[in-house]
Amino acid sequence: MKQLKRVSLFLIMVTSFLAGSINAQPIDKLIEKFEQGAYSKRGADGCLMCHKRADKVMAIFDGVHGQVINESSVMAQLQCEACHGPQGKHRGKNEPMLSFGDDSPLTAQMQNSVCIACHNDTERNAWHSSAHVDNDITCVSCHQVHVANDPVMEKRDQPQVCANCHIKVNADSHKRSSHPIDNGTMQCSDCHNPHGSMSDSDLTGFNVNQTCFSCHADKRGPFLWEHAPVMENCSHCHEPHGSVNESLLKSRVPVLCKQCHAGDIHASTQPGDNQSIQTGGQGCLNCHSQIHGSNHSSGKALQF
Ligand code: HEC
Ligand code: HEC
Ligand code: HEC
Ligand code: HEC
Ligand code: HEC
Ligand code: HEC
Ligand code: HEC
Ligand code: HEC
Ligand code: HEC
Ligand code: HEC
């Protein structure tokens, strides 16, 4: 079933591609092979007669796609041709095979349709509206299949894969204050679904706060005395990826506070007091220590 779905999905992609293209000879050939269902009788063994020498090809047998676990395993079905298309008269360069990556004559969409046909599940519900698909990123921009362990699936290695393209985020995550991504404690996909999600920035939660609450549950409240910006969006005060200020703060206290509390705070009774409150570095937090909200009966000013 999956295979049939796969083939027809691919044909739809190809047909729409051809409609807008002038020189599509290799793709023409590929369609022909699909229409003829020109799969080889020998399966992987036949391919390996010629392709065995490359380490890279054989390593697929150390990964999930090379294992026979049940009848829906790739190697229990069309094997190599499940991804590379029917062999037909390929046997070398005579006829092209489906190939992946930057050198492939196939569009990003076509390449992806091969993988999606088998991986069309809830995890990738929002793929078609994700920032990645909008920018012609392919499954294979992040995933490798001819390997024992796909680096993007390994907690420790994943950030490096993302860093290839997200240079600024990577730099931020090495700043003085950052989430522990470097040492393999956390990974980008703790907060983002790389396959797309229903929220801005493809977050794992419905919004920024819900994403943060999944680990910082103590900040969720409910609080008797709320601090409005905390309930609204943690990003009012925090950089998620990294900051030169402590606690991932966007700017130092009291500068941070004064962005919203400008003017004459505490400018009441004695002028001298006002001065000491306004300076003194951590000043504001010395008194307003419950900055995320308070449950103390007299904690209205976030003091207790
Ligand atoms: C799950 C899909 C999948 C299966 C199954 C698969 N491949 Fe691949 N193959 C790929 C992808 C994706 C690439 C691009 C490089 C990479 O990601 O490792 C690739 C690359 C290749 C290349 C290198 C092509 C080039 O452009 O240099 C060859 C040759 C190849 N595969 C042969 C095979 C053979 C032989 C088999 C069966 C033993 C096989 N593949 C099974 C997906 C697959
Ligand atoms: C008779 C030898 C032979 C057989 C059998 C063979 N190939 Fe190839 N294949 C080649 C040669 C030669 C190339 C070109 C290699 C190059 O350009 O470096 C190639 C290229 C490829 C490529 C790169 C993409 C392209 O179109 O250039 C893929 C993918 C591939 N083969 C997959 C397969 C698969 C899958 C099978 C089995 C269904 C298979 N080959 C069977 C010899 C063979
Ligand atoms: C013929 C069906 C089929 C195709 C085509 C296919 N896969 Fe898979 N893939 C599987 C199966 C079966 C598994 C085993 C796990 C499972 O049941 O989901 C798997 C597992 C995976 C995993 C999880 C790996 C892990 O270590 O757990 C990734 C990532 C993946 N595939 C990516 C791809 C990519 C990228 C492509 C396209 C180049 C692709 N797949 C094409 C069937 C397929
Ligand atoms: C931007 C990088 C990126 C792209 C592009 C990407 N993936 Fe993934 N993929 C990941 C990461 C990271 C994980 C592991 C964390 C997770 O499960 O969210 C993963 C996990 C998976 C898994 C195993 C767990 C699961 O979600 O079922 C499969 C299967 C998979 N990807 C398939 C695909 C397919 C198919 C495509 C193309 C449509 C694709 N991926 C595109 C990064 C990517
Ligand atoms: C602790 C959660 C968290 C982690 C871990 C995380 N992010 Fe983010 N990321 C966010 C949030 C929240 C936003 C949205 C910020 C906003 O809307 O103000 C975001 C935004 C982004 C954006 C879009 C805006 C921008 O800043 O460029 C990219 C790209 C991004 N993250 C990539 C990554 C990568 C790559 C990693 C891993 C190195 C990563 N993120 C790790 C929470 C996280
Ligand atoms: C091959 C390049 C590439 C790789 C690898 C890559 N991305 Fe992206 N990513 C992009 C591009 C291009 C965009 C869209 C432009 C932008 O926002 O920077 C993007 C956008 C994003 C966004 C912003 C979404 C939005 O709505 O603003 C997030 C989050 C993100 N990527 C996370 C990741 C994570 C996590 C990984 C690793 C698992 C990753 N990316 C790997 C190229 C890549
Ligand atoms: C997957 C779990 C997880 C998620 C999701 C998460 N965090 Fe964290 N956060 C951590 C861990 C782990 C630490 C480090 C704690 C430690 O070192 O004691 C941390 C530390 C912090 C710190 C203190 C940093 C420092 O330098 O002291 C802040 C601030 C923070 N997180 C804010 C956020 C915000 C804002 C979000 C949502 C955008 C978020 N976190 C999402 C796990 C998470
Ligand atoms: C009004 C600004 C502001 C907002 C909004 C805000 N924080 Fe903070 N956050 C701070 C300040 C200031 C500190 C440093 C506290 C200190 O040093 O005592 C801090 C520290 C933290 C810490 C590390 C220390 C601790 O208390 O565990 C975490 C984790 C944290 N914030 C998470 C969050 C989360 C999650 C959100 C969103 C629900 C959020 N913050 C919203 C100002 C804010
Ligand atoms: C993004 C804007 C923003 C930032 C940054 C911010 N606040 Fe607030 N703060 C508010 C808003 C809005 C209210 C609610 C005002 C109201 O209800 O009149 C508030 C209320 C307060 C209250 C009074 C609670 C009450 O109702 O009496 C205190 C105390 C306070 N903030 C302290 C701080 C301190 C200290 C900082 C810096 C660590 C800070 N705020 C940063 C927006 C902000
Ligand atoms: C010496 C202790 C102390 C320091 C330091 C302090 N506050 Fe206060 N603040 C208070 C007290 C006590 C109240 C409640 C006053 C009241 O109810 O009349 C208050 C009230 C507030 C309020 C709510 C009342 C209003 O005027 O709207 C804000 C906002 C506020 N402080 C912000 C700040 C900021 C920003 C800083 C740092 C620049 C700061 N505070 C430093 C003790 C302090």
From TrEMBL:
Indicate the segments forming the Doubled CXXCH motif domain, all copies. Answer: 180-220, 227-263
The signal peptide stretch is 1-24
The Cytochrome c-type protein NrfB-like domain, residue ranges: 80-165
Q: Which UniProt keywords apply?
A: Electron transport, Heme, Iron, Metal-binding, Signal, Transport
Q: Does the keyword Transport apply?
A: yes
Q: What Pfam families does the database record attribute to this sequence?
A: Cytochrom_c_NrfB-like (PF22678), Paired_CXXCH_1 (PF09699)
Q: What is this protein called?
A: DmsE family decaheme c-type cytochrome
**Species for this entry:** Shewanella intestini
Read off the lineage from the record. Answer: Bacteria, Pseudomonadati, Pseudomonadota, Gammaproteobacteria, Alteromonadales
